[in-house]
Specification:
This protein has 132 residues and is an alpha+beta fold. Helices cover 27% and strands 42% of the residues. It has helices at 22-39, 44-49, 120-130, and strands at residues 3-8, 52-63, 72-82, 85-95, 100-112, 115-117.
Length: 132
């Protein structure tokens, strides 16, 4: 794990069954990725202004244990680069017991001036964390 972010489930994130709707897990994961990058001075808005769009190409999730309104949880991530893909491995654990609720993999790519490419800034960023 390289980064973690704490959350609390809000009422409106739950469905009629009283558990977090599946789509909200993608929101939690995306917010975690964005905060991680922002805290390391990488801004999606700034990248876009430079004609670099960092986008999700594939998402897979496994649901293990549901979260309910008011539950506290932590969203964690690690990441690697494989060729032109930047792969984020993410997990959500309930708090305080740290039981696994969900795991996911997000394969992200860069579009530079509309063309699939690597991004030097992100490649250097991945290297920085892999050297730790």
């Amino acid at each position: 794990m390289v980064y973690s972010l704490d959350f609390v489930v809000r009422d409106y994130e739950c469905d009629l069954q009283g558990i977090v709707n599946n789509a909200n897990y993608q929101h939690y994961y995306e917010h975690t990725r964005h905060q991680f990058l922002l805290e390391n001075n990488i801004s999606f808005a700034k990248l876009h202004e430079e004609n670099i769009d960092f986008v999700v190409a594939r998402a897979t999730m496994s649901f293990k244990r549901p979260l309910k309104s008011g539950d506290k949880f932590v969203s964690e991530l690690s990441f690697v680069q494989e060729g032109i893909k930047y792969i984020f491995y993410q997990k959500i654990y309930s708090l305080p017991d740290r039981k696994l609720c969900n795991s996911a993999q997000f394969d992200c790519v860069c579009l530079c001036n509309g063309k699939l490419s690597t991004c030097d800034l992100l490649t250097d960023f991945v290297k920085k964390f892999s050297e730790k």
